[in-house]
Amino acid sequence: MAIPISYNIRNLRLRRGATVMTALGIALTVTIAIFIMALLAGLRDAFATSGEPTHVLVLRKGSNSELAAGGVAREAMQTLKDLPGIAKNTQGDSLVSGEDILVIVLPRKDGTGETNVTMRFLTPVGLEMRPKVKIVAGRWFTPGQREIVVSKSIHDRFSQTNVGDTMFFGKGNWTVVGVFDSGGSAHESEIWADINQLASDLDRTQYSSVLMKATDPVSAESLKNRVSDDQRLKLNGMLETEYYAQQTSTGGPIKIVGLFVAFIMAIGSIFAAMNTMYAAVAYRAREIATLRVIGFSRPSILTSFVLESLLLALLGALVGIVLMLPFNGMTTGTSNPVTFSEAVFRLRMTPLVVSWAIIFAVVMGVLGGLAPAWHASRREILASLRD
Amino acid sequence: MTLTRFVTKNAFRNKRRTMLTVSSIALSLLLLTLMMTIWRAFYMDQGSVESSQRLITRHKVSLVFDLPAYYREKIRALPGVKHVVNEQWFGGQYKDQKPENMFAQFGTDPQEFFDVYKDLHIPPDQLQAWQKDRAGCVVDAELAKKHGWQIGDRLFIKGTIFPMNLELNLRGIFTAAQPTESIYFNSTYIDEGYPPLKGLVGFYGVLADSAQDVPKVASEIDEQFRNVERPTKTESEHAFQLGWIAMMGNVKAFILSICLAVVFAILLVSANTMAMSIRERTREVALLKTLGFTQGRVLGLFVGEAMAMSLLGGVVGTIIAVGVIRAASKAPGLNFFLGGVHVGIPTMLVALLVAAAVGFVSAFLPAYHASRGNIVEGLRHIG
């Protein structure tokens, strides 16, 4: 017969001090684990929601980043536009957008220095191909003007990015005319402007990448192969989703450091939980013997103590989750190794992250409780009663 | 029995509990030491004397914009400037994309490179061999050892940023106080292989007359190129490197919050243990007091016991930290940030100080209560 769980709850309440301290220790560990997992989930999310399955990204052969020097010659554009399987807009124009990427330095608002930010230069067709990106303040840039629009995250995190602010590069000042929201995709880390103005400002004769929209995902696949196999073009096509998937290596250092810290702290917490549980077992030696005399079996004593440790850990997990809630949705950034610039993302406590945190706590509780519970169930009844 | 012996005996009376507590504290202090070491390496280490004399001049807007090659002579003409050398990040790929095959490649001018980077040492005959070979390169000694490169080897590097590949002859091996994870080759190789880059330079390494001249030289250079099409930004080498770390995100806040969580966690663990072990000894305390021990002495005994335990944990933690840092500074992927980093004596002392403080704070309150307790009630205590 199982020992009622209310017995464990009462015991935890009785030894309030030890319970609170152990649970808080576990809570701290859980907090750190959630923090790291929420960071990584946010990053993954930013790259996973980026890219359309019908979009094909074209880069120079041998390059794996839009930032690489030397790209797609302007002359190649016509060839690309006439490829079969390309979607057209209502005016009958091919949805093919020649784009250019630059990285510029902007000062952070929180005073932690400057960092690189990606600027994407494109045409109105490029805007049309990304309907998810919407203006939330001001307006889009006008082609042929030194005007830029910034993403909401960039606007929130960097100075000089309010509507009306200017920044100097190329041959003059570029004015911020709008703020856009990309719905959490990788464009959330970008500033957009007109490509023809850039080409004349910096004498750029090539696109760094070309984005093409296929009529459906199947033709996207064949379009991709068609571009890569054409020996005249010397270009390489890949699905936009593949391109962003490779960037999920962003956050590698966070992952290594974070997991290491969480792992070490978890071992520390397991030791602390063991300590508390051993003390609980020693303190209740006579009680345990009495339970045995009444007729509770060894397995039920074992289960009961593991359960008590589990309760302790779950309490810790709960506190940890509550402690982290205010940070959910916080915007932060790290460097993207593919574009050498800042990848902005939000901390996301997804249900998956929370479940992992609970599993993490359960493992700590069970590991911490197992040895003491084993000892408790193995004690000689008579010896314990005499103590 | 002396008092010290009494304290040690008591600290180890419940061996299992002591072991668990000490290990828990050791793990936390391991983390604390690691974090403090990284902090020190990133933000407090000023680098070598030569490094503090060096500046980096780059395009004001971004590193991806190049600077004209003629800036070099203009910078050289400024007062306080001793040497200037052009550098270009190549960003190529050796063998494959695995982290252990990643290292930096820079195009530069062999004639002046080692004059600016005086803290890199190369035998004169190897330097001459490099200067005579347009396709020659020099590599970091650590890197050469890792990949088993020898003088005369050919290195093939695939360009990913530039549409060209490098086929380099290894002409020299230089040694550095800290591993640089870099190779240097003649920048004319890029100029000829990718003509659009001819006459352009990624950034300049500048050697000032002295460290005191650095701020003055920086503002002079930027002043010179303020109202031109390609303005510059010049900063000390240290500030330039900090910029790379800042790109990783808010590293400072990250490290600080981990440190805080860790210290708080050990405080909890230690306080919990001490509270448990003192409560168990209520009767003993009463006995000690009947024997004539004063309140202060009883308090001292408990606090001393807690401090001994946490200090032991601290010593173990720092020793493991030294080993971990040694391993991490050689691990692929991490060595770029942690190359040459070691746990300094001040860091160890701070870690031990934290350990002692934690021991003191965690034991004080329960010990104070125990020492003030009523003797008769204490003797009657069952538990």
Secondary structure: elements and pairs:
The complex is a heterodimer of chains A (387) and B (383).
Chain A: H1 5-14, H2 16-48, E1 55-60, E2 72-73, H3 76-81, E3 96-107, E4 114-122, H4 124-128, E5 134-138, E6 147-151, H5 152-157, E7 166-169, E8 172-181, E9 190-194, H6 195-202, E10 206-207, E11 209-213, H7 217-229, E12 235-239, H8 240-246, H9 252-283, H10 285-294, H11 298-324, E13 331-336, E14 341-346, H12 351-378, H13 381-386
Parallel strand pairs in A: 4-9, 6-8
Antiparallel strand pairs in A: 1-11, 1-12, 2-10, 3-4, 3-11, 5-8, 6-9, 7-8, 13-14
Helix pairs in contact in A: 1-11, 2-9, 2-11, 2-12, 9-11, 9-12, 11-12
Chain B: H1 3-11, H2 15-44, H3 49-52, E1 54-59, E2 67-68, H4 71-76, E3 81-89, E4 93-94, E5 104-108, H5 113-116, E6 120-121, H6 124-132, E7 136-140, H7 141-147, E8 154-158, E9 165-176, E10 182-186, H8 188-193, E11 200-201, E12 203-208, H9 214-224, E13 232-236, H10 237-247, H11 251-280, H12 282-290, H13 295-328, H14 335-338, H15 345-372, H16 375-380
Parallel strand pairs in B: 5-10, 7-9
Antiparallel strand pairs in B: 1-12, 1-13, 2-11, 3-5, 3-12, 4-8, 6-9, 7-10, 8-9
Helix pairs in contact in B: 1-13, 2-11, 2-13, 2-15, 11-15, 13-15
Describe the structure.
The complex is a heterodimer of chains A (387) and B (383). By secondary structure, chain A is of the alpha+beta class. Chain A has 13 helices and 14 strands. In chain A, the strands form three sheets. In chain A, strands 1, 3, 4, 5, 6, 7, 8, 9, 11 and 12 form a ten-stranded mixed beta sheet that branches. In chain A, helix 2 (16-48) packs across helix 11 (298-324). The relative contact order of chain A is 0.21. In chain B, strands 1, 3, 4, 5, 6, 7, 8, 9, 10, 12 and 13 form an eleven-stranded mixed beta sheet that branches. The longest helix of chain B has 34 residues, at 295-328. The two termini of chain B are 27 Å apart. Chains A and B meet through helix 2, strand 3, strand 4, helix 9 and strand 13 of A and helix 2, helix 10 and helix 11 of B.
